[in-house]
Design a protein that fits this description.
This protein is of the alpha+beta class and 470 residues long. The protein folds into three domains: 100 residues, Uridine Diphospho-n-acetylenolpyruvylglucosamine Reductase, domain 2, CATH 3.30.43.10; 120 residues, Uridine Diphospho-n-acetylenolpyruvylglucosamine Reductase, domain 3; 191 residues, 3-Layer(aba) Sandwich (Vanillyl-alcohol Oxidase, Chain A, domain 3), CATH 3.40.462. 36% of the residues lie in helices and 21% in strands. A seven-stranded antiparallel beta sheet has the order 17-14-16-15-19-20-18, with helices on both faces. The radius of gyration is 23 Å and the shape is globular. The two termini are 29 Å apart. The structure holds flavin-adenine dinucleotide (FAD). The site of flavin-adenine dinucleotide has 37 residues, from strand 5, helix 5, strand 12 and helix 11.
Length: 470
């Protein structure tokens, strides 16, 4: 008999495995080392931790029964989508049960005339969009990695198209959620406008699996654009590029994507991805239009704004193939960086500020990295004020690690001072907990802890995340 001790109490592993097998069948429960190891870490550099057992549920009723059991015995439960988080969000730091949603990956209904879809949480958004293309529709938030809808809802993921279409939170209408005690609730409705009571849907969005388990989501879709143009624009400095971002957004133009890449990132993408960008800080942009004429008019305004920020090279009208290559390369930028720095640890910052403050944040980041003589890659979803800095360092170099943490902390402090946030899209996970009190204040933090205690009194849902120990 194996007793598992954790801050929630202790539970008998063998009895829990038997209970899980009774719920889902023995073939969908595993305590093998390799299955546990595959659910021990996400894509971040946060240290992994093996769960005690992994389960692959197929229905809401199974999830409900699992939660009832876990709540009774005090076993931690961590939901698992695709494991692509980069802040330690799904790492089962207290062990327990990992609920892997791989087998709950169906499109339940396409509401074609309402531009909506109802799906299970384990569906990967790229697979979903491939199926939706035949209806001429797509789900706009795109975090780049092939994340699951459950993970995107739980992290409130965003991506290159957020500047036009919003983040995940702006594109979810309704949820089915299993609570910590196994009860099942439905939040929201399929109406675009909703004003009926407290907004429980958005309480669960971004809660990183700490308040409930999402078993179904109804999502808002958009028509696939018919006319589009991709643009690249190169600038003398990152700051000039950031100023152009402010100009483009400030002039009321509506880019469908607006990404900033510094010289180091551009150099790497040229060599590793075979694209041919001017070696300088670049903006990648995409514009969609109702007609070619409207699009061309918009593009000439964009070119003028870029020229006002000393643009060195402006290329618009990139064809479909080149446009796809550009976005694929952008999506792969982080993976390429990781490959380029084998055996190194990394830290990826995620500050986001109001758009008017974006040039200030970028300049301050450039300065501090120079001051500490630590070069990182600056890239980000510039159109919505979100800046990532990827800093690589030797994993066993304590001094470099401390310097990197110092930069992260400096960037977060800058962002908060500029009216922004410590994390625009990656979530709190493990890495941003230390900034939560400062960002929200003690009274709001107490309210968050009270909400957690109300919804999860035994503290079994993804313990140790968002609020730390509660
Ligand atoms: C190369 C790369 C690029 C990325 N780019 C972006 C980007 O541009 N924008 C962005 O936002 N993110 C980005 N990410 C991060 C990541 O893809 C997102 O955070 C994504 O939302 C994680 O989804 P997932 O399915 O992998 O979830 P997981 O990592 O498996 O889980 C994420 C969180 O959701 C919880 N969870 C999972 N399923 C459920 C459920 N059914 N119910 C309740 N909770 C659940 C987990 O417990 C965990 O807390 C990137 C990651 C990589 C590796």
């Amino acid at each position: 008999m194996t007793t598992i001790q954790n801050p929630q109490g202790s539970f008998e592993l063998d009895a829990t495995i038997q209970a899980l097998q009774a719920i889902v069948g023995p073939e969908r429960v595993s305590a093998t080392e390799s299955d546990r190891d595959q659910h021990a870490r996400d894509q971040s550099a946060h240290p992994g931790r093996l769960p005690d057992v992994v389960v692959w549920p197929q229905t809401t009723a199974e999830v409900s029964a699992i939660m009832r059991h876990a709540n009774q015995v005090g076993a931690p439960v961590v939901a698992w989508g695709a494991g692509t988080s980069i802040e330690g969000n799904p790492i089962p730091v207290h062990g327990g049960i990992v609920l892997d949603f791989r087998d709950m990956n169906q499109i339940l209904k396409v509401h074609q005339n309402d531009f909506q879809v109802t799906v299970q949480p384990g569906i990967l958004y790229k697979d979903m969009n491939e199926s939706l293309a035949r209806y001429g529709l797509f789900f706009a938030p795109d975090p780049g990695a092939n994340a699951s809808i459950g993970g995107m809802v739980a992290n409130n993921a965003a991506g290159i198209r957020t500047v036009k279409y919003g983040a995940t939170k702006d594109n979810v209408l309704a949820l089915e959620v299993v609570l910590a005690n196994g009860e099942v609730i439905r939040t929201g409705s399929r109406s675009i406008k909703q004003s009926a009571g407290y907004d429980l849907t958005h309480l669960f969005i971004g809660s990183e699996g700490t308040l409930g388990i999402v078993t179904e989501a109804t999502l808002k879709l958009d028509p696939l654009p018919e006319h589009f143009s991709a643009v690249t624009a190169a600038f003398p400095t990152v700051n000039d590029a950031a100023e152009a971002v402010f100009g483009i957004i400030g002039s009321g133009l509506g880019p469908a994507a607006l990404e900033l890449l510094d010289t180091k990132t551009v150099t790497l993408m040229n060599t590793e991805e075979g694209i041919d960008l001017v070696i300088a800080p670049n903006l990648f942009m995409e514009f969609n239009g109702a007609s070619e004429a409207a699009l061309n008019e918009e593009l000439s305004m964009v070119e003028n704004i870029c020229n006002e920020s000393a643009c060195r090279h402006f290329q618009a009208g990139v064809g479909r193939e080149a446009r796809n290559r550009l976005w694929q390369a952008r999506h792969r930028a982080f993976e390429v960086m990781v490959r380029h720095h084998p055996n190194q640890a990394y830290l990826l910052t995620d500050a986001a500020v109001p758009i008017s403050q974006y040039p200030v944040l970028v300049a301050a980041t450039d300065d501090i990295m120079e001051e500490l003589n630590l070069r990182g890659y600056i890239l980000g979803h510039a159109g919505d004020g979100n800046m990532h800095t990827a800093i690589f360092f030797p994993a066993d170099d304590a001094e470099a690690r401390a310097k990197t943490e110092q930069i992260n902390s400096h960037i977060v402090q800058q962002s908060l001072a500029l009216g922004g946030t410590s994390t625009g899209e990656h979530g709190v996970g493990l890495g941003k907990q230390k900034y939560m009190e400062q960002e929200h204040g003690p009274i709001a933090m107490k309210l968050m802890r009270d909400l957690k205690a109300l919804l999860d009194p035994n503290g079994i849902l993804n313990p140790g995340k968002v609020l730390g120990q509660t």
